[in-house]
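User: I'll paste a sequence; please echo it back and then give the predicted structure.

Assistant: Echoing your sequence first, then the prediction.
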Amino acid sequence: MSRYVYKLPDIGEGIAEAEIVKWHIEPGTAVRQDEALVDVMTDKATVEIASPVSGTLRERHGKEGEKLPVGAALAVFDTETEDTQSEDTAAEGTEPCPGPEREPLAVMERPSGAGSSAHGKSLAAPAVRARARELGLDLSSVRGSGAQGRILHGDLDRLLLARMGKPAAPEPELEEGVEEIELFGLRRRIAERMQEAKRRIPHFTYVEEVNVEALEAERARRNADKQRGHLTLLPFLIRAVVETIARHPEVNCHYDDAGGKLRRFSPVHVGIATQTGRGLLVPVLRHAERLSVEEIASEIRRLAQAARAGKSARHDLSGSTITVTSLGALGGIMATPIINPPELAIIGVNRIREVPVVREGQVIPRRVMNLSSSFDHRILDGFVAASFIAALRQRLEAPQGL
């Protein structure tokens, strides 16, 4: 029997840490190699990590909702093999290869300093790092109060107040009947990303009304063919966005504000905001420019089903160049959607409603909907954004050939 320490591996996304979302195995339980051990979340997606060995799980490091640095001890197993894991191989998250001439290696734990990862890098969210840079603060001098010494915005606030000679505000006591709920997992990730997007990006929101009489007629015509499958409004909108981007490629870009670079994309990878039981996810419909309306509809169904079942692949949740968001029948008459960085635009769809329209002195009913879209005003001027939406409206109002 030997002791096997498994360390949080680098899962290939250039991250320094990951959040524990769900443990699948309880301590003291026998586990088989490749059996699901734990779900962890990075900035990109939730990843299932399998057990690297067969044996008995003795220790779990990190509670659900806690963040661990890459290279930190994740789990300890009792195994039947004679080899134990060296510190170097443990840091890679891989099992050592047994060999007859190899002596067993003792596992030695190296404690990390407060606020630093196993690589000596201070633990902090991207938003905290960016704010520290703007304030000229050295994170290595900040003592973090979060899990594993993670540096929070509150820690920066306390440091600034201390430099100004002002005492930090005490933590408020909870009133009777107030429940304090700790955010973790996808909900916390959404909160962090939304805060970061609003703090860094000057949003310019533009609302335009679209006459959808012709579009609804075209949709009904195609839906009459039962072999096509039911088409919602969304695949028509995405196809129209693709065709409009062909004339307005400046919208289909990423802005790297840290490097001061703009990346313009020829392919159109559309992020589709999707509500799930765990929160909002944005699966990505890749190369939408190659797909027909019916093919887009089929891919939307596949991506949405996988997202709601928690089975999205990592590549299905990253790499979008522009995002579309819709609340369907609940869409209200306008919204101010938040951009999904590093993208420059998000197209919001509101519900279809019937309104009276005056034509040649006659009041007639017409079905309309609003497009509520936000743009990164650092890169896209108001005229450019309005021109893009005007062209998109024209394409939707003349949908034949989409």
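The chain has two domains: 2-92, 203-397. The domain at 203-397 is CATH 3.30.559.10 (Chloramphenicol Acetyltransferase).
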